[in-house]
Amino acid sequence: MEPSRRKNLFSFLKNRKKVWISIASLLVIFVTTLVVYETTKATVTISIDGEEDIIKTHATTVADLIEEEDWEIGEHDKVTPALDTQLSSDIVVTWDKANLVTVARNEVLETVWTTAETVEELVVELNITIGEHDIISPSLDTEITADMSIIYESSFLVQLNSDGEQQEIWTTSTTVADFLESHEIELGELDRVEPAEDELLVTETDIEVIRVEKVTDVVEEAITFGTVTRKDDSLDRGKEQVVESGEEGLVEKYYEVILENGEEVSRELVKTETVKDSKDRIVAVGTRQPTPTVSRSATPSSNTPSNERSGKTITVTATAYTANCAGCSGITATGINLNNNRSQKVIAVDPSVIPLGSRVHVEGYGEAIAGDTGGNIVGNKIDVHVPTKSDAYKWGVRTVKVTILD
Question: By the 8 A CB rule, do 283 and 229 touch?
Answer without folding.
Answer: yes
